[in-house]
Amino acid sequence: MKTIFGFILLIGSYLETSAQSPLSLDSCRAMALSNNKELRISAEKISKAHYDQKAAFTHFLPKIAAMGTYMRTEKEISLLSEDQKNTIGHIGTAAQGSIQETFRQLIAANPAMGQLLEPLAPLIPGIGNALNGVGQGLVDALHTDTRNMYAGAITLTQPIFMGGKIVAYNKITRYAEKLAESQHATGMQELILSTDKAYWQVISLANKKKLAESFLQLVRQLDSDVEKMITEGVATKADGLSVKVKVNEAEMTLTQVENGLSLSKMVLCQLCGLPLDKDITLKDEDMEDLSMPDTGTTSNVATALAHREELRSLDLASKIYDQKVNIARAEFLPTVALTANYMVTNPSLVNGFERKFRGMWAVGAMLQIPIWNWGEGMYKVKAAKAEANIARYQLADVKEKVELQVTQANYKVNEAAKRLSMAGKNMEKAEENLRYAKLGFTEGIIPTSNVLEAQTAWLSAQSDKIDAQIDVKLAEVYLRKATGLLK
C-alpha cells in the first residue's frame, strides 16, 4: 500500500510540473490522490495498525526485564538484641565467676581435693578472658552492616495461558490493519468520485460556454439583419427591440456560464492541489459523442457485495467485536505464567552478609484463578456479545442498502442513456427547425418572433444534450462507485 501511494505521489508531482498541457481525467485523479491530506492521514493509520499488530504478537514471547536498586538506611539490620550482644560478649566473665564458686565449694567440702586443684586457680581468669573473646567474636561475626544495600535482578516471564486474551488481541490487531486499509480505499473512492464530479462539471460548463457564445453570435447576427430590415422598412422597431432583449439575455447567460466555469475550475484545482487561480484546460472539453453504457443489474449487485469497501469494513468490525467477546471472557479465566530470575545482593544474603555481590537463581510458575466476582464476568461477556450483534445487524442492513443503491444506480444509467438518445433526436429537430426559420425569415414569410423561438429551442436542445452527456458519464461513475469498482 505504501509503495502504491508513493507511486501516486510521484505521478502527481510530475503532472503538476507539466500542468501547461491539457489535463486528463486520470491525471486529475492522480494529483488529487497525491495531494489529499486525509488520504495521507489514513495511510499513517495503516502504518500504525501494522505496528500495533507486530506489538501484539510480542505478547506470545518471553519478556526479560532487569532491575537494580541502592538503599541507604539510618540503622543496620541486627540479628541480636542489645541484651543478647552484652550476654554473649561477657560469657567468659559469667563463666569465670561460676568456676570460682565451684572451686570454693569443692575446697570447703573436700580439703584434700582443694589442695590438688589449687594450682589451677590462677588459670581461671585466663579462661574467662578467652571465653569473652570468643563471645565478642561471635557478636562481631553477626554484625550485618546493611546500611548501604545494593540489589539487582534479571527476570524472565513467559505466558503459558492467559485465558485466550493474547490470541484475541492478535486477531483484533490483524483485523484492525485490514480495516485501516479498507477505510483508506474507501477514502480514495470518495476522493475519485468528487474529482470526477468536479471534472465533468467543468466539461459541462466549458461546452455550455461554447454554446452560449454560439447563441450570442446567432442572436447578434439576427439583430444585425433586423436592423437592416428596419432601415428598409420591412420590419418594425418592436421586432428590433425583441431581438435586442434576446441579445442582452444571451450576454447575461454567457456571463453566468463564465462565472460558473471559473468557480468549477477552482473546485477542481483545490481537489488536485493546484493554485485556485490557475487556468487549466481539460482534454475532454471538445467532446462530441459518448458511448452508450451496457450494464446488468444482477451481476452488478453480486459485484458490489464482493467489492464494496464499506461492507468489508463492517465485516472486519464484526470480527473485531467477536474477539472482544473472547477478551471479556478471558478476564475471568485462570491464567498461568512461567517465571525465572537471577538476583544479586550486596551485602550477600547467602554467605553471612558478606560485603560482596553474590547471587542465586530461581524458577517458578504463577497461577491466578478468579473465585467470585458477583457476576461481573458474565455481565461483561453479555455486553460484548450485544456489541457484536449490533455490528452484525449493521452489516446486514448495509448489504440491503447496497443492493438497493446498485439497482438505483443501474436504473439511472439506463435513464441517462435514454435521455441522451432523446436529446440527440431533439437536437436534430431543433437544428432543422432553426434552419427552416432562418430560411423563412430570409424569404420574409416568417416573423422575427418565430426565429427567436426557434433559436431558443435550439439553445435548449443543445443545453439538454450537454446535460445528458454529462449525466451519462456521472451515472456510470456512480454505478462504478456503487459496485466498488471505482479506482
Walk me through the structure.
By secondary structure, the protein is of the alpha+beta class. Helix 5 (91-109) packs antiparallel against helix 7 (124-141), helix 8 (165-232) packs antiparallel against helix 9 and helix 8 (165-232) runs antiparallel to helix 11. The chain has 2 domains: 2-35 and 164-333 and 372-482, Up-down Bundle (Outer membrane efflux proteins (OEP)); 78-143, no CATH class. The relative contact order is 0.11. The chain has helices spanning 2-17, 25-35, 37-57, 82-89, 91-109, 111-117, 124-141, 165-232, 237-272, 297-307, 309-330, 376-443, 448-482, and strands at residues 63-72, 148-161, 335-346, 358-368. Residues 1-11 and 13-19 have low confidence and may be disordered. The two termini are 14 Å apart. It has a 4-stranded antiparallel sheet, with no helix packed on it. The longest helix is centred in the middle third of the chain and has 68 residues, at 165-232. The chain is built from 13 helices and 4 strands.
